Amino acid sequence: DQEQREGAEVIREGIRMIQISAAVLMWLLVVCLLPGMRLRRDHSILIAAITIAVAMTLNIDQLYMSLDALFAARNYVDLLANVSLVVGIYFLSRAIIRAATSDEKSERKDTRGTVLLGVVIVGLMLSFSFVNTQGSSNRFMLDYGDQTPAAVYSAIQFVYIGYVVSVTGITCFRFRADMSRPYYRTAFAFIGIGCALALLLVSMVLVMDLLHLQGRLDAMRAVSLAYDGTVVAALAFLCVGLAIPPVARRVVRHKESETEEELVRRLTEVWEKTAGMRQDVRLTRGVGSLFQRDPAGQLHRMLVGVQDALLVEPVLARSLDNTEVRVL
């Protein structure tokens, strides 16, 4: 008995670590996405990350039990977590498909997908209402999975997730080679693998639900061991894949800014010898003020100014030495 209790405690501790790891991974993704929020027109990926992170966080045992106590111990927190998860999966799929396909269809309002999401949420609430619960349970499907409504509740959620991640994964692998930048191709590969693992995860859940209904608990527990590791693996691949583009863009943009600033500094002397000599094509503001605000825009305006000056007065080209011509 002592050994059994110790073994059960080890299993519970392992489950807690998986729950915390899953939540931490998702919140780290949110942190990676936040800096570029103002620059993006479409916030689907951020909405997806936040809602999935909320779902993962609500599954942490201690937090789940504390919050559910505020709802008369009716396990409404489990329903809230699962609704948040399907909403997050929907927005995740939309964001990835929009990133992969630049055609007009991806920009249209996704009426069919929104209706399907609404049907799934209603189905979750209806099936949940028929589950006979007795107090808060941080092991909802383990405690109540022998009831048909609970199996339906789980099946609705995971069949929908399986459908969405399969479409998303196929899209990633289909359009991966069309991505112009290497980091996008890498990101799509990670996301595609994450979707494949998520589909495997869905299959495991459906098998466990069926085994539970049949009363084959030993077989169900054997499948659950593989399930726990697959959860972390799927989330890890998805989070890394989704975090690569925003992080890579910031790194690339930083390098480009350094190059632009260097080019502005090297071009300033050329500009002074050409456009700077002519008031009619001279910039209305000084080089320094615009350089501080927008190096790329400043570089463009300086080049236009130099070109205009040389077109109006070609003799100015004689004032440039070979080094300055190469800079230009």
Write the topology of this structure.
Blueprint (H helix, E strand, L loop, with lengths): L1 H32 L10 H15 L2 H9 L6 H25 L3 H4 L3 H19 L10 H5 L3 H28 L6 H32 L3 H57 L13 H7 L1 H18 L9 H6 L1
Q: How far from one another are the termini?
A: 82 Å
* Inertia-based shape: elongated
Percent helix, as a range, is over 70%
Structural class: mainly alpha
Mean pLDDT comes to 84
Total strands: the figure is 0
Largest sheet: none
Beta fraction of the residues?
A: under 5%
Compute the number of helices: 13
Q: What is the N-to-C order of secondary-structure elements (H for helix, E for strand)?
A: HHHHHHHHHHHHH
Radius of gyration: 28 Å
Short key terms for the protein model shown above:
mainly alpha, single chain, 328 residues
Summarize the structure.
The protein is mostly helical and 328 residues long. The protein has helices spanning 2-33, 44-58, 61-69, 76-100, 104-107, 111-129, 140-144, 148-175, 182-213, 217-273, 287-293, 295-312, 322-327. The longest helix is centred in the C-terminal third of the chain and has 57 residues, at 217-273.
Structure description:
- The protein starts with a helix and ends with a helix.
- Helix 2 (44-58) packs antiparallel against helix 4, helix 4 (76-100) packs antiparallel against helix 6 (111-129) and helix 4 packs parallel to helix 8 (148-175).
- The mean pLDDT is 84.
- The protein is mainly α and 328 residues long.
- The protein has 13 helices and no strands.
- The longest helix has 57 residues, at 217-273.
- 78% of the residues lie in helices and 0% in strands.
- It has helices at residues 2-33, 44-58, 61-69, 76-100, 104-107, 111-129, 140-144, 148-175, 182-213, 217-273, 287-293, 295-312, 322-327.
